[in-house]
Amino acid sequence: MSTPIIQLKNIVKRYKLGGETIHALNDVSLEILKGGFVAIMGPSGSGKSTLMNMIGCLDRPDAGTYLLQEEDIGKKNDNQLAAIRNQEIGFIFQNFNLLTRLTAMENVEMPLLYTKMSMAKRRERALEVLDQVGLKDRAGQLPTQLSGGQQQRVAIARALVAKPTILLADEPTGALDSKTSKEILQVMKELNELGHTVILITHDLSIAKQAGRMVILQDGKLFENGGERLGEFSIH
């Protein structure tokens, strides 16, 4: 049986809004196995972004425990968390977050600038992952010279370049048309088949169904595979 790579235990996250306390995450527990492909789905305001920030070590819970590879994230300092984000987690964003003045290869190699890897090795690794997503021939082009789907492939290559265990994708098809969305999802399935743990954040049921497992957030609470809650969603 696979080992849980992520264990969230009774996670609580609160925010103050005016004089009111909002429970963005309310006693959330979740285990994700190594090599899994999990979609976290929910409407706007459900707590998806907060949960993504928690899993990605960008935020800390007010209560509860987060174990990543059996290590208690709550005991890590900011520098240790930054190292975890750089080495263990590859982030993929809806709007690509590419630097427009850098080429595809330069964008991809950015996470490696914080390592002791030589420039030659960085370029070699960047070209390797660009080839993996089918864009080695576009390595010298700027983001503005690429289509939306190609830009997202560059972003996926950047997420892969440091050889992370986990790929955390926040609405990765949100800015793409349906044909290109299918292509990007296929890339993510292939990466999962290669052994990457893929966590997909989405509000779109048709996208979520592509994952091997689906959990649903609503009002800060988590429901496994939706259950009766699935029928309550109106997806737009």
UniProtKB/TrEMBL annotation:
Domain ABC transporter spans what residues? 6-233
Q: Which InterPro entries match?
A: AAA+_ATPase, ABC_transporter-like_ATP-bd, ABC_transporter-like_CS, ABC_transpr_LolD-like, MacB-like_ATP-bd, P-loop_NTPase
GO MF annotation terms: ATP binding
What Gene3D superfamilies does the annotation carry?
Answer: P-loop containing nucleotide triphosphate hydrolases
The alphabetized UniProt keywords are: ATP-binding, Nucleotide-binding, Transport
Name assigned to this protein: ABC transport system ATP-binding protein
**What is the organism field in this record?**
Neobacillus ginsengisoli
